[in-house]
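Continued from yesterday's entry.
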Amino acid sequence: MSVPAQLPHWKALILIGLAVLVLFSFYGTFQNNFIHYDDHVYVTDNPHVRGGLSGEGIRWAFTATDAGFWHPLTWLSLMADAQLFRLNPAGYHGTNLLLHLLTTTLLFLVLSGMSGQVWPSAFAAALFGVHPLQVEPVAWVAARKDVLCAFFWVTSMWLYGWYALRPGFLRYGALAVVFSMGLMAKPMVVTLPFILLLLDVWPLNRLSFGGGSEIFLQGGRRHFRSVTWKSAILEKVPLLVMAAGVISVTFFAEAKAGALKALDSFPLSERVGNALVSYVRYLGKTLWPTDLSIHYAHPGGWPLWIIVGSAVLLTVITLAVLKAFRKRPYLVTGWFWFLFTLLPVIGIVQIGSHAMADRYAYLPSIGLFLMVAWGGAGCVKNRLPSRARFLPVAAVLSLLAAFAVASRNQVAYWQDAVSVFRHAAQVEPNNALVQNNLGAALTRAGKSADAVGPLREALRIRPDYAEAAFNLGSAQAEKGNREEALFWYDRALELHPGFAEAYNNKGILAAQSGHFSEAAELFRQALEIRPDYREARSNWERVMAEHRR
C-alpha cells in the first residue's frame, strides 16, 4: 500500500489540519522541564545518554537493560537529542512532539489507504492526535519509548498493507525490519502480529475460508489479496518468534531492575481483579478524560462488586461487538485491538506499584477511536437526512476543540516535577508514592519546609515506606535539623538495610560536623552496597583526603 507521490488537495488539507490540532494541543511542552521521575534515569543522571552518540554509547545501548527494558533505539534517540541539545529539555520535548505528529499524520494515511474512507480516517487520527490521554507519553521525556514505538507500529501497519497488496519476500522483509525496530523501542509492540490479523478481517478484508489470490475491485475501492485463515496465521509466525525473544529479555530486565512483582506481593486473584477494573477505567478515561495522573496507586484488592460489574460490562460489549460483526466489522477490529494491545500492561504480570498508566493507553486507544469514527460515520450515513448532516460535523469539530483545549491544559501540569505531582496529589490524595515524590520535588526545588507535609502524609499512608523516610530526612537536613534528619535516615535503614543513599547522606552530615572517620565509614558502607555509587565514592575520597591532613 504505497502513499501517492502527490497527495490530492483535500488530503493535504487534512494533514495540515491534523498538524495544527496537534501543535495547538502540545506546543506547551517546549516550556516544560525534565521530571525527576525516570527522566533522571533516562537522561539527566545517565552518563551514557549525556555523552551523546559514540561507539561506546551505541554498544551500551544494545546491551543495557537499565530502567527494566531492552530498548536500544530509545536509548539511541535520547543520545541523539543529547548530541544536539545537551541538557536543554525543549529539544527532547520537541522530539517527542515530532514523533507524535508524524504518527498521527501517518495513521490517517494508513487508515484511509486501507479502508478507502477519508473522513472516518481523519476523525480517528484526529482523536489520536489531540486526546488528553496522549499528554503523558508526549509531555514526559522518559516516555520516549511510547511515542517511538507507536511510530514504528503505524509504519509497520503501512508496510503490512503494502505487503498485503502483493505478498513477496522483500515486502515482508521490510515489514519484519520495521517491526523489529518497534520492538527495540518498546516491548509493547509484541501484540502487533495479533492486530495485523484483525486488520486482515477489517479493513483489508483479506480473510476467506476458501482462499484466493486475486486483487479485485468492488465499489471502486481496492481490496487486498485474499488468504485463508491458516495462511494469515502462518504469515505472522516469524513476527511472533521475534516478539517471543523480546518478551524473554524484558522479563529478565524487569526482574533485574526489581520491578517485577512476586505473587506474594500481588496475588493472582488481585491481579485479575485489577485487570478487569483497569480495562473499564481505561475505557472510561478514553470516553471522559478527567482526573488524569502520572501515577494511579494499586489498590490491592478491589471490592467484589466492582470486579464483577467490570467483568459483566466487558462481556456485554464483547458479545454486542461479535453480534454486529457482519454489518459493522470495524467494531470487532477496534474492540479487540483495545483488549489485545493492553494485555501486556494490564497487570497480570505486575510491574511496579501502579494499577494502570495513561501512557499504556497510547496505542490501545486507537482501537476505540476506530469504533467511534466508523460507528459515527455509519450513523450519519444511515439515519440522518442530508440536510441535517452539518450537525455531526459541528459536533466532531466541537469535540476535537474540547479535547485540544483539555490536552493543552493537561500539558501545563507537566511543567516540572512539583506541578505534575501536586496535580497527582489532588487526583489521588491517598497515594503514598505521589505524596513522597511531591515532597522530594519540593526539596529539590529549595522548598524543604513545604516538603515535610507531603512526606509525613506518605508515611501516614504507608508507614513502611523507606524512601519517604529517607526523603523526609533529606528535607530536614535542608532545613538544618540535623538530629531530625539522622532520625529519619536511621528509620529508612531500619526499613531497608540496603539503602545506600541513606548511608551516604548520614556520611555527609558526619563530615559537616567534622567527624571524618565516621563519615568515611558511612561512605564505605554505601559503596559496599553500591560499588558504582559515584557520589559516595567522591565523598569518600574527599573525607579521606581531609582526614590525612
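--- second protein ---
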Amino acid sequence: MLPEELAKLVKEAATKEVFAVWLLIGTAFIFFMQAGFAMVETGFTRAKNAGNIIMKNLMDFCIGTVVFVLLGFSLMMAEDYVLGIVGVPNLNILTDFGGFLKSGNAPAFVFNLVFCATAATIVSGAMAERTRFLSYCIYSGVISLFVYPIEAGWVWNQAGWLIKLGFHDFAGSAAIHSVGGVTALIGAIMVGPRLGKYVKDKAGKVTKVNAIPGHSVTLGALGCFILWFGWYGFNGAAAWNGDSLASIFVTTTIAPAVATCTTMIFTWIKNGKPDVSMCINASLAGLVGITAGCDALDAVGATVVGLVSGFLVVFVVEFLDLKLHIDDPVGAVGVHFANGVWGTIAVGLLANPSAPAGLNGLFYTGSFRLLGVQALGIVCILAWTAVMMTLTFLILKKTVGLRVSVEEEIKGLDKTEHGLPSAYADFVPAVESLDYGFEGAVAVSGETPVAEAVPVKKMPAIDDGSPKFTKVEIICKEPRFEALKNAMMEIGITGMTVSHVLGCGVQKGQPEYYRGVPVEANLLPKIQVDIVVSKVPVRSVIETAKKVLYTGHIGDGKIFVYDVENVVKVRTGEEGYDALQDVE
C-alpha cells in the first residue's frame, strides 16, 4: 500500500472516531434537554401539579428507553428495511452485544433514543394538570415503540422512502417536533380543557376565557435557556465537518433570537407590555423552525425563519385558546406543531445551494421540486401520527380513562396521583380564584335541626376596669409599608403584626394579559398591618397612616378600627394595659 493511501485511510479512520465522539457529546446535550422541557412545563403550570410534570418527563425517557431497546430501534434503523417503510425487528442489542458494538450502531442507538424521548415529552405540557398518569405512561410507550420509530425511519434510514425522494429534515422539525406537536393537539382536544379555563352559558357556548398563569416564570425561563443550550447538540450532533458544524451553530443562534425579538415587539404593541411567557415560547419556536434546515439555510434564511416563527407562535397560541377553546397550558402546539411544519416547508423555500447541505430552495433556484418533496413528507408524517395517536387516545379513553376526576384535578395531581402534599414542601399552595362551575351544588339554607346543631356558648365580656384597647387594621400597597412602619414607630407604636394578603376593591385593578388572555385582577397583593393601641391615641394612628399612605390614586388602602376586649402577654401572663408595654 502506498504511503498516500495509508495516510488517507488513517485520516478517514480518525475522522470517523472524532465524529463518533462528537455525536455522543451531542447526544448528552440532547439528553439534558429533558430537564429543559421539565422546567418549562413546570413553570407554565400550577404548583399543585409540579411533581406530576416532573414525573412525566422522567418517565418519558425511561419508558422510551425500554421500548426503544426492545423494538423501536429495529423498526427505525434496521438494515433489513421493507419497502422503505419499516425495519425488520431484531434483538442484536440484547442477543449479540459485541456484534452490535462492532457494527457501529451504538452511537446511533443512543442518539436516536434521545430524539425519540424528545418527541414523547413534548406532549406532556399540552395535556398537563388533568391527565391520568397511567394513561400518560401508556401513551409514552406507544409513541416511542411504534409511532416515532417508523416515521423517523422514513426520514433518516438510508433505505427510507422519504430520504430516497430527497426529503430533508436534518435534525427533526418534521420527524420530532411536528410529531410531538400534532400529538399534543390531539391529546389536548381529547382530554378537554382544565376546569375553570372556559366559562360557558346554559347553551354550552363559551362566554369567557380565563387566564391560568403558570406558577413560576423563573423556572420557565431556566428551561428555555437549558433547551437553547441543548439545541446546539440537537442540531449540531450529526454535523460531519467543522464548516457544517459552524454553519449550524450560526443558524441555530440567529433564528430563535430573531423570533424572540419579533414576539417581544409584537406583544408590546398588541398588549401594551411585552409578554414574558410568550417570548420564552418564541425562543423555542425559532429553534424548532430552524431545526430541519439548520445545515441548508444561510443567515438570511435563518432570519426569515425566526421572523415568521415569532409571529406564528403568538397567532397559533391565541387562536387555539381564544377561538377554538383548546387548552394548551404551555403552548406546545404553537411551538412544536406550527413551527415544525413551518421549518420543514422553509427548507423548500429558503435552502441556499452554497450552504453545507447544497440544496436548491425555491427562492434561490426557482425550482419547486424540493418544496414539493418537503410538503409531501410533512403531510405523510402528520397523517401517520394523527391516525396512530387518535386511536391510542380513544382506546385509553374507553378503557383506563384519560382524565382524572373533578375532585382530583382541583386538589392537584401531586397529591392525588403521587401522594405529594406539595412539590414545594416549605410553601403553602396559592389560593385559586377560578369558578369550577359546581352547578349541582346544594345551597345552604341556614336551618339546621337542633339535634345536629353545634352548641354555641356566649362568653362574658371582660370588664375589670382596664383602659380601652383598640385594634387598628391597615390595608396598604406593598411599596408603602416601610414608610408606614417608620411613621408608626415615630408616634410610639412598639408592636405590629404584618401579613401579605390578597384583596380588591370595586375597581379590581389595572387589566393585564397572560399569553394574550385578559387576567382578571380579582385579588391584588396587599400588606395588612394590625396594631393594638391603648396609650397612643387611636386618632393619631389613623391620621398618621392616612398621611403616609395617601397618593391620590385608586388602591391607596383602607383602615378598619375595632374594639378589643383584652390583651394577654403569653410570656409573663400580664393582661390589659401592662401586656402592651415592652418595658421589663
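The chain has two domains: 16-418, 469-580. The chain is about 55% helix and 10% strand. Will compare against the first tomorrow.
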